[in-house]
Design goal:
Elements (H helix, E strand, L loop, with lengths): L13 H6 L3 E8 L4 H13 L2 E7 L8 H7 L2 H4 L1 E5 L2 H10 L3 E5 L6 E2 L11 E5 L8 H6 L2 E4 L11 H16 L2
Parallel strand pairs: 1-2, 1-6, 2-3, 4-6, 4-7, 5-7
Helix pairs in contact: 2-3, 2-7
Length: about 180
């Protein structure tokens, strides 16, 4: 086996990314404090052709050296917008008929492995603060709460890891 070089991976250009059809998924970051986490979400969103990222509350925005360290240029390919209030974004998306999924541990949550996206439905996932999670009022406004099943001793995953797990799961279900 030989490891492939970057020029052998057949990746598209930023211009091509901008013009091709996206996965009907939007990411909403609710008060993410770590710039490395924000950058990692950009990079993962690029990998799965995510339509847009909303950066809300205390989230830093590009251009930023620390975001760039992990995004590796994905801030140029993935559309993004800063909105101060997460609830404002959620309400806007719901008016646009986007189904909003809060990724959070709540009573009666739906396990990620048991959730199957509907065809021709656009979804937004809301990812919460590293310590406090998704704000209560945002959880209440969401159409559904999705939980990543976990079996170990820790109570949660890092936000960038959680985003990657959820986006991969939804991406492969949407495209199957």
């Amino acid at each position: 086996m030989r490891k492939l070089r970057n020029n052998e991976l057949g990746r598209i250009t930023v211009e091509e990314y901008k013009s091709i059809q996206k996965t009907p998924l939007i990411v909403v970051l609710d008060n993410i404090r770590s710039l490395n986490n924000i950058g990692a979400v950009f990079r993962t969103s690029d990998a799965f052709l995510i339509e847009k990222i909303y950066l809300c509350g205390i989230c830093a925005t590009p251009p930023n050296r620390d975001i760039h360290k992990t995004a590796l240029g994905a801030t140029a390919s993935v559309d993004w917008e800063y909105v101060e209030d997460t609830l404002t974004v959620v309400e806007k998306l719901k008016k646009e008929k986007v189904q909003v999924l809060a990724i959070e541990q709540v009573e009666n949550s739906t396990k990620l492995n048991a959730f199957f996206p509907e065809k021709n439905q656009k979804y937004a996932i809301v990812m919460g603060n590293e310590v406090k999670g998704v704000q209560d009022e945002v959880v209440d406004a969401a159409d559904l709460c999705i939980e990543i099943p976990q079996l170990g001793t820790k109570h949660s995953l890092n936000i960038s890891v959680s985003t990657g797990v959820v986006l991969w799961d939804l991406f492969q279900k949407i495209n199957s």
